[in-house]
Amino acid sequence: EIDGSVFIASTEVKPGDKVRVRIVDADEYDMWAELI
Prior knowledge:
Blueprint: E1 5-8, E2 21-26, E3 30-35
Parallel strand pairs: 1-3
Antiparallel strand pairs: 2-3
């Protein structure tokens, strides 16, 4: 099973928060984003 994840480098975001992000990088299974 592959769980795609979005990683955000921020101390402002808590689990369950809904935030707007911009995807800045990705590989086969995961994405990296920054807050916008």
